Amino acid sequence: xxxxxxxxxxxxSGTIVTLRxxxxxxxxxxxxxxxxGLLRQSKHxxxxxxxxxxxxxxxxxxxxxxLFWLYFALPFFGISLSAETAxxxxxxxxHGAYGSEVxxxxxxxxxxDQWEAATALGYSRRQTLFGIIxxxxxxxMLPPLGNSLxxxxxxxxxxxxxxxxxxxxxxxxxxxxxxAVVPIFICVLLIYYSIAIAATWIxxxxxxxxxxxxxxxxxxx
Amino acid sequence: xxxxxxxxxxxPQLAVAxxxxxxxxxxxxxxxxxxxxxxxxxxxSRWQIVSxxxxxxxxxxxxxxxxxxxxxxxxxxxxxxVRLSPLATGLLVFSVHYGCxxxxxxRAGLEAVPRGQxxxxxxxxxxxxxTYRSIVLPQMIYPIIPAAGNYFxxxxxxxxxxxxxxxxxxxxxxxxxxxxxxxYLEPITLCGLLFLIMSIAAAGLIRTAEFFYGRHWRRAW
Lengths: 221, 221
Prior knowledge:
Number of helices of chain A: 11
Number of helices of chain B: 8
Largest sheet of chain B: none
Oligomer: heterodimer
Order of helices and strands of chain B: HHHHHHHH
Distance between the termini of chain B: 54 Å
Mean pLDDT of chain A: 89
Distance between the termini of chain A: 52 Å
Radius of gyration of chain A: 21 Å
Shape of chain A: flat
Structural class of chain B: mainly alpha
Low-confidence stretches of chain B: none
CATH topology of chain B: MetI-like fold
Number of domains of chain A: 1
Largest interface: A-B, 39 and 38 residues
Strand content of chain B: under 5%
Mean pLDDT of chain B: 90
Number of strands of chain B: 0
CATH class of chain A: Mainly Alpha
Structural class of chain A: mainly alpha
Helix content of chain A: over 70%
Number of strands of chain A: 0
Largest sheet of chain A: none
CATH architecture of chain A: Orthogonal Bundle
Order of helices and strands of chain A: HHHHHHHHHHH
CATH superfamily of chain B: MetI-like
């Protein structure tokens, strides 16, 4: 216990960095996922193909290798990123690619009839997409979002490998110094667990709040 | 910029290390397939205390980063007098972590078997073991192939984390070459490419498995 009190500032600062990386890479990933999800629905085969290749590439390369590459190999091209920036970009790229599948699935879950009805009412393609399909699709994305968030949170621990001073990194540091393996790591696991619980809880809250806007057709499966 | 002759000269080293990576992936996935079964049975236990405890433990393991779990076991086990090699520790952690995921996959597969099948087994008064062995199990396998395959590829892409507990696999070797020669670009790029090729190949293999298995079982669906 004494060890935990002694190490509280390091663990706390690590938690803050973890949360920062988590939130920022989530924002980046979310934007990327929406963009890629839309591009993969494009009318032009070339755009569709390029987006698919992009997604397959970032899904195929391991996150660890990618972060390592961004941090250690990119400087050879004259671009030096700070460790934290590299982590945020790397995690955003990987999870943006994963997320695009969620976006695509959600958009496909909105039935053809919505498109047809919008066309019949004289909406343009863009108006239909952003005014009618997307708002419904965003709600349909909520259930898988909880899972994706937990996956991303677990991914942030990989940033410790490229020396981002986040929770895992700091705890390894404390353990090296104090040799109090069990209390420190259990505390850290609990912190990760609470963040994960909080994130899924927020998603579930959103789901409940926005659920009433969910169109009936979505519930019929 | 990218030195091809250097890349070619380090390729054999990486290829040897790739064997370890593939071995760890396949071995821990097979263990995970096995670990998932008792976990599923415990979660379906009639005693609430057993099923709820198991669910809580599985959730905890799934919501915390595998890297911290690796560190925890690697550094904590010697304190309790258990000495495992880094490789064995890695196998243990990956098997249990993905075993938890597999129990979830199995559960979904079990729930996908139509109720009528169970009812029919009761009507035919098939013994419980026989019901599982020849009716439920064969029908479970087809729907779980995609999810299980997904986790297989995930596991593969997380194996570079083993480098942090000094298992000599691809990531470890490429980082070592990078540190030795002060050139990270070639080893890490090569490592990433190998990961990309292998994970795309694995995804293709899974789709083939699904197709071949589906030929016999799709009719049931």
